[in-house]
Amino acid sequence: MLAELLLFGLVVAGTSFAENLDFTAMKGPLEMLNFNPNWVPPPITANHVKDSSEHGVTPGPIPTSCRCGMANRSGRRIVGGRPHGPNEYPWIVGIAASHTPHRPHCGGSIISPWHVLTAAHCYSGQPLGASVGDYSRGGFPSKFHPGIKTFIHENYNQQNMRHDIALIFLATPILETPNVGLVCLPRDSNPLHGQEMRFIGWGAERFQGPMTITPKKTDVPVVPITSCSMAWQGMVSPSPQTQICTHSRSTTPCQGDSGGPVTYRDPTTNRYHQYGIVSFGPRCETVIPSVQTYVPYYLSWILSKIQATVPGQQTCR
Fold it and tell me: Where's the Peptidase S1 domain (predicted)?
């Protein structure tokens, strides 16, 4: 349970993933230190909604355009902070180089049978693929889908991490199963100030610590982009809004979270919609916000790449 500080790392482990991961090979944008240490959190009240076995299961009053964002849940109520059940969020994948499929270095999400969304900084020039269907390290072996092409946003900037988004086109389609499914894309561009975004992960609970055996989950509220830009001067800009920030004094993304989905359960659909992609933050610290790529801003870019590779392919909202 999340009775104390929990630092998530969304590094998915395949069955042959080393128990003690060498994090020295994984230094990246999520460990950035050039932030304003004097930043003061804005007076914002988080709209906390206690987790429920009904979330993402029963349909909401407004249907989604196709099957997406559905959680695998038991019939009992659960409280935020417990390890989640097997493949409770079936759209999460591990991103790995195709020549080392059982060593994911980033997270990602399934947005179509042929396409996986992740962060641009997860790509280092090597062909990427997605490991799907993971839950427990040492059990529930995943299937690796190699990618044909990784699309990096044309304006991605490694210095200030703007436009940190990538789309992987897979060689073979991902088949929907009870343990594998799509996440919904956003229905609108609501900035969601004060709303809690869901983070899930198998990763370290402290900087350079060991990964957890099974995934855990937590919710972190969105802070206004204007406040976040004061914490990350020169890194975050409120206009146009290409990023979304989250902050809590008790929990934050950590190493390996990069590229993973940041979702919001829309009460009108009762489905999980992806509003963010984990991009960067302080070194597993909770002093200032972590920064995610803001998915609504990039919807036209995402859809154009999907249609260029699989004409007529549907996405769900």
Answer: 78-307
